[in-house]
């Protein structure tokens, strides 16, 4: 067992490992690109807008008024006929402005008498290329693909986005003592991590499938489960077995599959015995402790930063929160303390408990060799999929 790495350094190390291993990027459908980073700049496929577009409902007019009204109306999606001096035609917002138009009268400002219309005019249309010219860079590489980015790409004429793909992740649950249904009894307990962790991974940007296991507590079974999961995943998250007890076979299994440590144990409480390893072909194995809250802290510390890097995104920033009460430190270790949205510490915060976590805003980050007092503003480590 090596000396534990500092918590802040563990986050940075996991992110850097993922960023170095990110895919080169490819043209992905919008849904597949969402949540990853642009692998190349997004450029406009045409002028944006491509033609003069009315910004109002009203009348397009040419020459001096009052203007004689032409039949029909210019609607969005149609190509209008030109209009001549002294003429007017009704126009809808978003419609192409007819050639010859010198101004628009807003519908609410227009006066119509018989077959003539009058009112104040203005150039209330968007000029071709007003937002962008064909070939112009709209967004830089590295920017996160969000729904507005997808909307801009579609408006600019694209069907795909150059992006880093979302990594595939699987969860492998270790432990003979675990049940997948019913209530805990006779020395066996219900598995909470198998149902929970895939959703955490999905919220952190991975493509996930059902958990594998529980896997029996033998080295052979551990190795077989790892190889099976690695066959179709970029990241395998295991639960339990991260220490060196009599049935903790993860370290030996990592050696069997040829994985080398990126980090092994982190100076944080709870969650100390977490690890991250990498195989010879560039896949990752994250070892999460078996205690549920410690496993979530491992996701927050190692897995979420790793997945951000694999998608070409920066290290996820920490939030902040103002504490409503004192929070003690944990000596040389970073203390991650469960707090609610008001900055109050939560009960039921033991590493084997989930009750406090279920109502938490996240973990208040108390630096090593320090403590925090009521009223202090501190960093907040949030949980993927949980809004503070």
Automatic annotation (TrEMBL):
EC number: 2.10.1.1
Catalytic reaction(s) noted: adenylyl-molybdopterin + molybdate = Mo-molybdopterin + AMP + H(+)
Domain MoaB/Mog: 170-309
Enzyme class: transferase
Protein's GO biological process: Mo-molybdopterin cofactor biosynthetic process
Cofactor: Mg(2+)
Pathway: Cofactor biosynthesis; molybdopterin biosynthesis
CC per GO annotation: cytosol
PANTHER family, per the entry: GEPHYRIN (PTHR10192:SF5), MOLYBDOPTERIN BIOSYNTHESIS PROTEIN (PTHR10192)
Role played: Catalyzes the insertion of molybdate into adenylated molybdopterin with the concomitant release of AMP.
Family, per entry: Belongs to the MoeA family.
Record protein name field: Molybdopterin molybdenumtransferase
The species this protein was found in: Glycomyces paridis
